[in-house]
């Protein structure tokens, strides 16, 4: 019986023994280092596997996080920062420690989001308790963020955050059997930047064989070129007054580098801009400039653009589920409805660079929509929903499933970015969920999408038809949920 378990669970990993804690029917092992602390000479280096430790490592509290900022009251997902130097850790949640079997349980590896500059694996939303209840071992991983993880640095390996993902996945291959998991049945999943990480790994030759399934929630398709990354590095170095190389950036304390990074992200003060320009500024920055930091096409670790890799067949043997919420970035315009609704949708979208027949087709597909809602939907379509269609086209013939999360939160009136996460993890009673999903989010919807995730991780099938032409079946998670034909039809005009 669970309540008869008095001794803390212990597991032997390749680097030493770890002691976790029981939580009812499962156990948690938190803050297990998979790499040496990325400090000193290791700061801008490839991650070094964690060496052996003596005795038993206490794994009852989350380890230090690469995210350094204090948790913001406006952050949708509660992702706390934990101070300390040993920031490259995994957290393992398992229903079956100490009793590994020959077959083992399916494994979910979660990569958090945060635009590659923020986020934390210590979120209560990412607790694997519900997946454990359903027979899935769950692992959450950390990785270096911002310029330390993804900035272009001459004289250092590029894509250090990506290298962190790879080492964490290798740690899972080497150690998860000891926690009751099956290393041959590993599904990677993530949301937002985490979803983009999934899509990146799926198209990387170096990542093949480290996982057998992939689920991308609201994932972008990263495409930062080496030239763009180098230009950003030069700008950051100039702002900091250092040389744009390893020695120059290493001369800056982590807090100094973060301050300059944040200042560049903030841009100008907006002085002299019209109310419309001010209202459109966040959307325009995303649409025209995209991400400044993230996986870079470096010609080595990420040798080609992700979509090109898919077209060449990389990852085609790995089943993929992908989708987005209906109103990912409508939050960008929630505080600017008045100046946006004072102009036509045509003028607002033209200011975002949409023109010609594509503009006409998009307006026709969204007739009678207020301008503020139209701008939010366009950013969602441009960055997220169109990316899903491009991925499906590039993976033609590979096993893929498409969905939409369409349930509108009563807290926002839309199916906003991050809203689907507590449903996917089935943690509707967790901290801050009511702020995002309202006081009474529908448990039946969580049962559906969490059940689809469990089905995919365990059996390779989320429970609705595979994507195929010309039907284009799309699972629409809502109350009630349905299966639609061509559920992203109104997005398609941006790609034709």
Automatic annotation (TrEMBL):
Q: Which residue ranges does the record assign to the Carboxylesterase type B domain? A: 8-462
Enumerate the SUPFAM superfamilies for this protein.
Answer: alpha/beta-Hydrolases (SSF53474)
Task: Write down the EC number.
Answer: 3.1.1.-
Matching Pfam families: COesterase
Which EC class, in a word?
hydrolase
Keywords attached to this entry:
Hydrolase
What does the record give under GO molecular function?
Answer: hydrolase activity
Q: Which PANTHER family match?
A: CARBOXYLESTERASE (PTHR11559)
What does the sequence similarity comment in the record state about its family?
Belongs to the type-B carboxylesterase/lipase family.
The entry's protein name is: Carboxylic ester hydrolase
Please name the taxonomic classification of the source: Bacteria, Bacillati, Actinomycetota, Actinomycetes, Micrococcales
């Amino acid at each position: 019986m669970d309540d008869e378990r008095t001794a803390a669970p212990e597991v032997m990993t390749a680097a030493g023994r770890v002691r976790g804690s029981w939580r009812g029917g499962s156990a948690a092992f938190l803050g297990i280092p998979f790499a040496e602390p990325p400090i000193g000479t290791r700061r801008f280096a490839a991650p070094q596997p964690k060496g052996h430790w003596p005795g038993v490592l206490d794994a009852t509290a989350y380890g230090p996080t690469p995210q350094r900022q204090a948790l913001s009251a406006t952050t949708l997902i509660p992702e706390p920062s934990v101070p300390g130097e040993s920031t490259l850790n995994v957290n393992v949640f398992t229903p079956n420690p100490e009793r590994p079997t020959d077959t083992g349980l399916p494994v979910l590896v979660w990569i958090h989001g945060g635009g590659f500059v923020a986020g934390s694996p210590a979120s209560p939303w990412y607790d694997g308790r519900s997946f454990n209840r359903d027979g899935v071992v769950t692992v959450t991983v950390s990785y270096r963020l911002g310029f330390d993880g993804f900035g272009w640095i001459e004289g250092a390996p590029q894509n250090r955050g990506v290298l962190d993902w790879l080492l964490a996945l290798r740690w899972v291959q080497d150690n998860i059997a000891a926690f009751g998991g099956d290393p041959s049945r590993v599904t990677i999943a993530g949301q937002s930047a985490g979803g983009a990480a999934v899509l990146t790994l799926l198209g990387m030759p170096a990542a093949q064989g480290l996982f057998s399934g992939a689920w991308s929630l609201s994932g972008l398709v990263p495409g930062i070129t080496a030239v763009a990354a180098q230009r950003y590095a030069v700008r950051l170095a100039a702002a900091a007054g250092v040389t744009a190389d390893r020695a120059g950036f290493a001369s800056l304390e982590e807090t100094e580098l973060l301050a300059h990074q944040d200042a560049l992200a903030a841009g100008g003060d907006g002085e002299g801009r019209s109310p419309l320009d001010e209202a459109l500024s966040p959307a325009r920055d995303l649409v025209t400039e995209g991400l400044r930091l993230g996986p870079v096409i470096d010609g080595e670790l990420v040798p080609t653009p992700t979509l090109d890799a898919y077209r060449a067949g990389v990852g085609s043997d790995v089943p993929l589920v992908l989708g987005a919420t209906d109103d990912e970035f409508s939050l960008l315009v929630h505080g600017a409805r008045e100046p946006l609704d004072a102009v036509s949708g045509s003028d607002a979208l033209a200011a975002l660079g949409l023109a010609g027949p594509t503009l006409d087709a998009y307006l026709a597909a969204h007739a009678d929509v207020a301008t503020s809602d139209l701008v939010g939907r366009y950013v969602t379509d441009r960055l997220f929903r169109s990316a899903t269609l491009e991925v499906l086209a590039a993976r033609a013939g590979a096993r893929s499933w498409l969905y939409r999360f369409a349930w509108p939160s009563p807290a926002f009136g839309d199916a906003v970015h991050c809203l689907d996460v507590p449903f996917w993890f089935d943690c509707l009673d967790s901290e801050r969920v009511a702020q995002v999903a309202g006081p009474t989010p529908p448990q039946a919807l969580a049962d559906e999408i969490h059940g689809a995730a469990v089905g995919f991780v365990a059996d390779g099938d989320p429970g609705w038809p595979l994507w195929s032409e010309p039907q284009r079946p799309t699972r629409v998670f809502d109350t009630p949920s349905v299966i639609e034909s061509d559920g992203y039809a109104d997005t398609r005009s941006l790609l034709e």
